[in-house]
Amino acid sequence: MVFEGIDGAGTSTQAERFAAHLRAARRMVHVTREPSAGPVGALLRQVLTHRISLPGARQAEIMALLFSADRLDHLGAEIEPLLRDGYVVISDRYDLSSLAYQSTTAGEDGAGSGAIVEWIRELNRHALRPDVTVVIDVAPEIAEKRRRGRGGAEELFEKTELQARLAEAYRRAEELVPGDRVIHIDGNGSVDEVARAITAALSAVVER
Ligand SMILES: Nc1ncnc2c1ncn2[C@@H]1O[C@H](COP(=O)(O)OP(=O)(O)OP(=O)(O)O)[C@@H](O)[C@H]1O
Ligand SMILES: [Mg+2]
């Protein structure tokens, strides 16, 4: 299963909370995230933290290519072997992030975003579909406050205006991953409130 949302939505917090809930029910659970711990993931993290800079013109496309390469590496090296061993694997971000972020950042005026969505889907054609994607919808101002509270330097995509456009992309997540099962959760409440909403929404999915 996959947890998604804008930066500071609480995906990492809630992925861990839900994993703890499943472990308490004696399920084998593995939490992972994108960018992965693999070699392409390490490269991506250096771009996100501005340790490496990409040429401006095709930045979104380069990021889409790197993320799709990282995703297939992550699946083969980490996720699929664990699924075969019977683990529930929770990924903090997946290809919905590529579709939301790279389609929102490609082209200054958003022109051609339909074409880039098609292209990103094609790049991710071999990526296993998740059982369910939990989209944590949070107001951009609330997410920004949380990011500030967390501290650290601003990452590549952490601009308020961009985050507002991303929040809109996530509200329409179903259009980006047609055919996937998507559950929206109101993430504006406290950590406990959001965790309760997720547990309730996912109880049917994990009763198997
Ligand atoms: N519901 C909540 N209410 C208040 N604070 C929260 C809530 N959820 C998370 N936080 C806090 O907000 C900060 C961001 O949360 P978290 O790291 O889980 O977000 P994220 O979606 O994983 O962000 P990123 O996409 O940047 O990794 C953390 O300091 C976390 O403790
Ligand atoms: Mg996170």
Task: Tell me what you see in this structure.
With 208 residues, this protein is an alpha/beta fold. The protein has a single domain (2-206), classed as P-loop containing nucleotide triphosphate hydrolases (Rossmann fold), CATH 3.40.50. The chain is 55% helix and 11% strand. It has helices at 11-24, 39-48, 59-84, 95-105, 113-123, 140-150, 160-171, 173-176, 191-206, and strands at 2-4, 29-33, 88-92, 133-137, 182-186. Strands 2-3-1-4-5 form a 5-stranded parallel beta sheet, with helices on both faces. Helix 2 packs across helix 3 (59-84), helix 4 packs antiparallel against helix 5 (113-123) and helix 4 (95-105) crosses helix 7 (160-171). The longest helix has 26 residues, at 59-84. The chain starts with a strand and ends with a helix. The model has no long low-confidence stretch (mean pLDDT 94). Bound molecules: adenosine-5'-triphosphate and magnesium ion. Magnesium ion (MG) binds next to helix 1.
